[in-house]
Amino acid sequence: MNPSRFAALLVAAAIVAPASVALAQGKPKVVILATGGTIAGAAKSQTDAGYKSGAVGVDILIEAVPQLKDIATVTGEQIASIGSQDMNDAVWLKLGKRVNELLAQADIAGVAITHGTDTMEETSYFLDLVTKSDKPVVLTGSMRPSTAMSADGPLNIYNAVAIAADPGARGRGVLVAVDDDIHSAHDVVKLHTTDVNTFSSGEAGLIGASLFGKNTWFRKPENVHTKNSELRIDGVDALPRVDIIYAHANMSPDIITSAVTNGAKGLVIAGVGDGNMTAPALEAAKAAAASGVPVVRSSRTNSGIIRRNIEVSDDDLGTITSMELNPTKARVLLQLALLKTKDPKVIQSYFDRY
């Protein structure tokens, strides 16, 4: 952490705006919920590749972008201070419930969330399934820590708040705003370890674009989301364990049976190609499904649609197909589906619609 760097940010903020983001009368009210991540990271120097995630609090993040006062009345809350590799069910539940509490308030226009990029696609999709409002929820992060030369976090925060304050963002589901692009939580994936332009929406395409807070909208998602979702976390204190198993050449069936033996309540297979796996692994998946552990076939390719009964007979195996969802998103949907049912036919209906 570089104290002089943060001191400079605070001085700059004080010149442009008093102590904290000013409360601008008549401006939309946006709450930033901070969870940590690279966007709140600090390194020893501006060119140090190593850094500590979540080292910077939400107040400093806000004060470092004084221009926020021009587009919204902004306040912040610290939900967690972790790297997103440590994101977990407890934080998801806390975050989801707080989002719903805030959006239920008539004077709140939207919520922006700062988050690490490693698991942003999962957290955003979780919120897409459990948020009970059509008001904007916008996740953002960065690939460079706050202390880095040409840090990408401040403009990402500015754009995220502008989107959260934009009435045009309503009804588009939970969004991810990074590098001037606006993605749907349903479609966004991280594709590069360090590139600033790491996120893609693949075949589905962008929801919109944001240029210094000016938003252009392209489409609305087709999947069921937010206020129309049947999936809820009211009164939920824990989510069922769902494991992802990565398929490969010469895949052994015992990695499937071991997951079930060790307490997995559902499985997602990141299959090769069209969600496939070795013949012995298919038999293990069939046995797991027969024992009451739902098994979802997805693909490690991160692209395309896994449909039923193409290369294998899902009807005979008792398996579920992930449709457009990659393994990480399929895991999120299966966790929430298991709060309601273990019936594979009902769970398949969720994957068909969500």
Topology summary:
Elements: H1 3-16, E1 29-36, H2 58-63, E2 73-82, H3 89-103, E3 108-114, H4 120-130, E4 137-140, H5 153-164, E5 175-178, E6 181-184, E7 189-190, E8 199-200, E9 208-211, E10 214-217, E11 242-246, H6 254-261, E12 266-271, H7 279-290, E13 295-299, H8 314-317, E14 320-321, H9 327-337, H10 344-353
Parallel strand pairs: 1-2, 1-3, 3-4, 4-5, 11-12, 12-13, 13-14
Antiparallel strand pairs: 5-6, 6-9, 7-8, 9-10
Backbone shape: globular
- What's the average pLDDT? 91
- What is the fold named in CATH at topology level of the largest domain? Rossmann fold
Task: Write out the strand line-up for the largest beta sheet, numbering strands in chain order.
Answer: 2-1-3-4-5-6-9-10
Tally of separate helices: 10
The CATH homologous superfamily of the largest domain is called: L-asparaginase, N-terminal domain
Please bin the fraction of helical residues: 25-40%
Task: Briefly say what this structure is.
This protein is α/β, with parallel strands linked by helices.
Describe the structure.
It is a single chain. The chain has 354 residues and is α/β, with parallel strands linked by helices. It folds into two domains: 3-228, 3-Layer(aba) Sandwich (Rossmann fold), CATH 3.40.50; 242-353, Rossmann fold. The chain is built from ten helices and 14 strands. The strands form three sheets. An eight-stranded mixed β-sheet has the order 2-1-3-4-5-6-9-10. A four-stranded parallel β-sheet has the order 11-12-13-14, with helices on both faces. The longest helix is centred in the first third of the chain and has 15 residues, at 89-103. The radius of gyration is 21 Å and the shape is globular. The relative contact order is 0.11. Mean pLDDT is 91; it is low at 1-24.
